Structures are given as C-alpha cells and as structure tokens.
Amino acid sequence: MSYLIVPSFxxxxxxxxxxxxxxxxxxxxxxxxxxxxxxxVGKGITAFKKGVNDGTKQLEDEAVESAKDVTPDKDxxxxx
Length: 80
What we know:
By secondary structure, the chain is mainly α. 78% of the residues lie in helices and 0% in strands. The protein is built from 4 helices and no strands.
C-alpha cells in the first residue's frame, strides 16, 4: 500500500486558495519564466500528438500492406 501525503491546506483549497497559490508562484518565478515553461509544455504536447499520429499512420500502412492478395499465381489462373 502506498500513501500519498498531501498537506491539509491543499486538500481544502477552494478557488481563493488556488488563486493565492497562483499569485505566489507568479511572484516567485516571474511572468517570463512561467510563459517560457508553458511554451515548452505546448511544444511537448504538439510533439506527442505528432508521434501518436505518425504511429497510427504507420500501423494503418502496415495493415494495408499485409492485406495484399497473396494467392499463388497458379490458383489465380485456374479461377480466371
């Protein structure tokens, strides 16, 4: 069993508490540092989505390749 220790003031944080935490973080780190951090998070999300889309496309391409007709030529000639 693992227990997550969370301070009680965070458990009971309402909208005002979250706003207070946001203001403190803004004062400590500054607007420029936070905006550059959010920019990096955005780039990471974009890269993740691109990777997922590329992987999905690759799987679809492999499925199409594996679905090709593999009937031997002699069997094709007999039917046609």
